[in-house]
Design a protein that fits this description.
By secondary structure, the protein is of the alpha/beta class. The chain has two domains: about 35 residues, no CATH class; about 240 residues, P-loop containing nucleotide triphosphate hydrolases (Rossmann fold), CATH 3.40.50. The protein contains twelve helices and 13 strands. The strands form four sheets. The chain has a seven-stranded mixed beta sheet, sandwiched between helices. It has a two-stranded antiparallel sheet with strand order 1-2. A hairpin with a 6-residue loop joins strand 1 and strand 2. Bound molecules: guanosine-5'-triphosphate (GTP), magnesium ion and zinc ion. The site of zinc ion (ZN) has 8 residues, from loops.
Length: about 300
């Protein structure tokens, strides 16, 4: 057998490029520069690439709550409202993820449907990255706010380290928005209250990137589906004290900077029989209420 000489081009340029690792923006594990998702935590590497091209450090905001409290609907509506109403704050979406969340939520609501449940895999989440301009401030803020699945967060809270991305992300956050279902609270279901307390206790035990604890960071507790709980709209604080006593007490003891809000996206809802899914709730009218306020408050109270 004879061997012919084969010329193999030495792709030194490409190799050199691969040799420079890039740290994941969430967990800091080094990845090759062409990785799409972090090999350690599955967060999109696009965040690290975007952060490299600008000189402002993006701030991270956690939006958490049990499955089906309405995180996706709330976030999608918030993005849509802020990008269309520049009077209060102007938002500019960065990257495809941010637009996808807004687009799928608004498209579903326009068809009189709610968006689908968020999948549990972190590489399928919409990692919202946006720039926020406020009237009285010259410097815009860069904010990263992923739409995480409630089940994944619960799993991490119950079994720490099972979802690395959730832990690394929460350690880096500057503020949190905790969503809780007011409709369920009104019906006397306690699961929401327990879940939220577990989540807050998880947060208060985390040591953050700057070695500080969560206790001084702003926490907005948002009572969702306020369209189904009239009293909650008028006085969210009193509603929480009455229907989520544990949570209300916990916030008073552990979080120096917290506030209760009531929000709703749908105006009127109805039940519809759907093939395969059974009875599902559908929005007949979209009437956002109290959506921007918690976000505005968080941004104003975020540590500089
Ligand atoms: N009445 C009413 N129902 C709402 C509202 N927002 C959400 N819902 C209901 O809550 C359900 C869940 O909303 P999602 O936004 O998907 O919930 P989620 O918190 O993202 O849930 P996961 O993705 O599983 O973590 C929707 O399918 C609706 O039935 C609202 O403003 N009013
Ligand atoms: Mg969701
Ligand atoms: Zn990572």
């Amino acid at each position: 057998m004879t061997h012919k000489g084969v010329v193999v081009p030495l792709e030194s340029m490409r190799l050199a490029r691969y040799a420079v690792p890039i740290p994941c923006y969430i967990c800091e594990t080094e990845n090759t520069c062409d990785a799409e998702y972090c090999t350690h935590c599955q967060a999109p590497m696009a965040l690290a690439h975007q952060a490299r091209t600008q000189n402002i450090r993006p701030r991270m905001v956690a939006v958490v709550g049990a499955s089906a409290v309405g995180k996706t609907v709330y976030l999608g509506m918030l993005m849509d409202m802020l990008s269309r109403q520049p009077q209060r704050m102007h938002l500019l979406a960065r990257g495809a993820f941010s637009i996808t969340l807004q687009q799928t939520t608004i498209a579903a609501l326009a068809r009189c449907e709610f968006p689908k449940k968020t999948p549990n895999e972190p590489d399928r989440w919409n990692w919202v990255h946006c720039q926020v301009r406020r009237h009285n401030q010259k410097q815009p803020l860069e904010i990263i706010m992923p739409d995480m699945a409630g089940e994944a967060v619960l799993e991490e809270v119950d079994h720490p380290h099972s979802y690395r991305v959730v832990r690394s992300f929460l350690q880096k956050c500057d503020a949190a928005m905790i969503l809780i279902d007011a409709h369920q609270l009104k019906q006397g279901r306690r699961e929401q209250d327990y879940f939220t307390m577990k989540l807050l206790s998880y947060l208060s035990e985390l040591t953050c990137h700057d070695k500080k604890t969560w206790q001084r960071r702003p926490v907005a507790v948002v009572l969702t589906k306020a369209d189904q709980a009239e009293q909650c709209r008028h006085d969210p604080q009193a509603f929480a004290a009455r229907h989520a006593v544990g949570l209300w007490q916990y916030c008073r003891e552990r979080f120096a900077c917290h506030r209760f809000f009531a929000a709703s996206v749908a105006g009127t809802c109805a039940y519809r029989e759907s093939l395969g899914e059974g009875r599902v709730m559908v929005p007949l009218r979209i009437e956002p209420h109290g959506v921007v306020e918690p976000f505005e408050w968080l941004v104003a109270n975020m540590p500089q």
